[in-house]
Amino acid sequence: MRWNAETRTVDIGIRTALALSESSQPGVGRPASAARARYGTLCHERHRRERQAQGAVGEVPVSLCRRLRGWEVTLRGRVDLVEDGERARIVDEVKSVIGPARATAVAPKAMAAAVAQVLLYALALQDETLRPAQVLRPRVVLVPVDPGDGPALPIDVAFDVEDAERRLMTATGAVVDAIQARLAEHQRRTACATRLTFPYRQPRPHQRELAGIVEEALAAERPVLLEAPTGIGKTVAALYPALRHALGAGAQTHYLTAKTTQRQGVAKAFDDLVTAAGPDVPLVALTLRRKDQMCPPGHLRCHPKQCELLDDFEARLLSSELMATLLDRGGHIDPGTVCTEASLQRLCPYEVMRRLEPRVDLVIGDYNQRFDRAATGDEAPVVVIDEAHNLFDRARELASPFVSSKLVQQARDRALDEDEPRLREAAVALTTAVQQHIEQAHAASQQDGERVPIGGFLEHAHDVERWQRLGLEAEALGLRWQRARWSAQDVRPDDPVAELVEMVTRMARQIDKARTHVGFVAWRDSPRGEGVGLVCVDPARFLESHHRRARGVVVMSATLSPSAYYAEVLGLSRLDPVITSAPSPFPVEHREIVVVPTVKTTLAERQAHLPAIAQLVERTIAVEPGNYIVFLPSHAMLAELRKALTLSRDEVLMQPPGASPAIRRRLLRKLADADRPQLLLAVTGGVFAEGVDLPGRALIGAIIVGPTLPPPTFERLLMQRHFEERHEAGFAYAMVYPGLRRVIQAAGRVIRTDDDVGVIMLLGERFENPSYAACLPPHWYRHDVRELSTSDPIARLTAFWSSVAPQPC
Ligand code: SF4
């Protein structure tokens, strides 16, 4: 829908206008999947081609224009088929159905919508081209999705001009109502934008400047890549201008982060903004939560007959007034609150949350909320992506499908249990075809004796056309399967047939993206078992397409150096980004950062240098006793270093492999409550290297043995080749930059507040290498990164600790 408040004109699709005129909200029912829409389109096209061959005209544009309450509303549409005969002008609205047309009961609501649509088409086609002898004959034509389900079924619809005109005016009225509601919402938001103020009287150093940079960039329609260290208050520095910009345009802001704790920080920043703005700024935010965490029964069998919280959902939601209650309170709506209040009303909290989402001003969620599902609302939001150093790998994972033989077998077992013979046959046929693909891919790759699998994976050029055909078959089966499950009241979260359909369609959709995706076969001994898949080596274009759909984009983190690399891999480089980096807000005299190049840490040399590393660690912690963390590239090296240290058992804590959250909490508590100095040995890139806050004396130093390059896995090597071909910087892009990012994250544990004092030591010759040193944050040194290097770190640390020692009164 496009509208202009000044000229008071609206342009809207006929279907959308009719949907607006329906009294209730969209019902909870079988999810309307993207596959359903795609398959519906294919089915339309097939039927249209057949009818066009017989003389009908397809995709005929029509429009109807009416004035109402000072608005000029134009409704437009495309008629599926029009056929001019001697006696009649046939006007067809095609409706795809799953199953034979004669035997399929179309939902009354869907049928009513199709009837209303074809009547308005007929009204538009009742023009001067209609010959006197012709009558209008509108029809709804039911066309089976699967051609094997038999012929199409035309159903005549009685046409009466007055009735059609009345329907048109009802729809026009609904459009005007919707526009006026939008306008009121738009005016509320723009009024809020002007009244929103920076929430803190005393901003942290550089915080206001950052907010200003973001504001200017958004106004200039340029994305922002913002590197800002911990403690600068970058959440508010980004959220404040993002909200103002979005509200000024009447739009939403989406703030995406990878971790729950960060989302809580965003909610707190929003509450501060709302409090500072006062009661006249009625803004609402909502934090999203995963479905399995919003399901009181916990079984995720989302069918009204299986879950009473979904039974008669729309009517009960309306009469409960829960939406209005939550929205009218203003401020941040916590998912826990949604859960509690929805449960009290015996309503599904997840469905309530989904309905709240388009109505709030700020949506706080995970990256998946934007990058792995269809957008909600029709206004493009301003998007803030926090801790964006995680986004590259998350986006790659989302775009890398894998079909395992194990899943195929599970789907086959499930399919064989299906009662309906034709559906059972189709599901089994899909599993057979997929398994054949897997086996043929394996056989083909085995014949190529020259290449050796890496970690059980071998590159393989999949047959694009075959997978695309298989994708279509899978989608068609998926629709029928979904419908059958719904009819049988047997909806389950763990349905291997549905999962296989999803994976096969994802493969089919990505299979032709040769520039960014590489096909592979996985052998039985691979960590993922036998199967086939695609590795997304570069998600930049995928991310860019999402950024282009946003009203503004802010991408930020404490570790985004080198900025050109992050701008490229996070999909910003072609969007003319504003790139900015903030200095540390903490006193530089509170920290000492040293690079010690006298030890070597490559796999081949580290054993010989282990005694020297152990000695450096022990001498460092002796200069200023307190709690330290040593970050190591692997658990194996962690164990070796422990052996080389002479410290006693009760002085050393160790991160065990696969440390659970409970173990992590226990070790952190030990550090925080320690009554004698503790040394924690942890893994760089592990659970102690990110999101850990140990202020004051709880942590006074981090010693990082590295750099910790990612292991040269199959995926990494493919990435390396891709970036070498593209930028002649394969090793840097695939290994060095991700490795150094982990180092900087680990180093960031030490200084978390103004009062923290501590040391950061990077142990390893390679830290001096220019391509590695280029990744170290500029705020770590004054003029030149070489200032950090020293062959006598103990003297530097001794001088540092003396300089920060408490002075006698
Ligand atoms: S409808 Fe809601 S409450 Fe019921 S099973 Fe599904 S997610 Fe859970």
Describe the protein's architecture and organization.
With 809 residues, this protein is an alpha/beta fold. The chain is 44% helix and 17% strand. It has 26 helices and 25 strands. A hairpin with a 2-residue loop joins β3 and β4. α1 (14-21) packs across α4 (161-195) and α4 (161-195) crosses α6 (234-248). The longest helix is centred in the N-terminal third of the chain and has 35 residues, at 161-195. It is globular. The N and C termini lie far apart (72 Å). The model is unreliable at 24-32 (pLDDT under 50). Bound molecules: iron/sulfur cluster. Iron/sulfur cluster binds at residues 291, 295-297, 299-302, 307, 309-310, 348, 350.
Q: How does the SSE layout of this entry go?
A:
Layout: E1 2-4, E2 9-13, H1 14-21, H2 34-53, E3 57-68, E4 71-84, E5 88-97, H3 108-124, E6 135-144, E7 153-156, H4 161-195, H5 207-219, E8 224-227, H6 234-248, E9 253-256, H7 260-277, E10 284-287, H8 313-320, H9 322-329, E11 331-333, H10 335-344, H11 349-356, E12 362-365, H12 368-371, E13 382-385, H13 391-398, E14 402-404, H14 405-416, H15 421-447, E15 457-459, H16 464-487, H17 496-510, E16 517-522, E17 531-536, H18 540-548, E18 552-557, H19 563-569, E19 578-581, E20 591-596, H20 606-623, E21 628-632, H21 635-644, E22 652-654, H22 661-673, E23 679-683, E24 701-705, H23 714-727, H24 730-747, E25 758-763, H25 770-773, H26 793-804
Parallel strand pairs: 2-4, 5-6, 8-18, 8-19, 9-12, 9-13, 10-11, 10-12, 13-18, 20-25, 21-23, 21-24, 22-23, 24-25
Antiparallel strand pairs: 1-2, 3-4, 4-5, 6-7, 14-17, 15-16, 16-17
Helix pairs in contact: 1-3, 1-4, 3-4, 4-6, 5-6, 6-7, 10-11, 14-15, 14-17, 15-16, 16-17, 20-21, 20-26, 23-24
